[in-house]
Design a protein that fits this description.
Number of helices: 4
Structural class: mainly alpha
Helix content: over 70%
Number of domains: 1
Distance between the termini: 57 Å
Number of strands: 0
Strand content: under 5%
Length: about 60
């Protein structure tokens, strides 16, 4: 593509972003407040590995 075409494309994309930014942010806000979103990402808590939870305390402390 020619540089003038790329510059025009950048200008058009910036204009579209400025025009539709409030609507996009409103949709993102609705999605983040939904129950499905919160349930999906709330279950991603860090879990202990099986090996650490089954080791005796004296062995577990020796490896740290």
């Amino acid at each position: 593509m020619e540089p003038i075409t790329l510059c025009g494309l950048v200008i058009v994309m910036f204009g579209l972003w400025v025009e539709f930014e409030p609507a996009v942010k409103a949709v993102v806000k609705l999605i983040r407040k939904s129950k499905l979103y919160s349930e999906f990402f709330s279950n991603s808590a860090a879990q202990k590995s099986v090996y650490v939870s089954k080791l005796p305390v004296c062995l577990a402390k020796a490896f740290h």
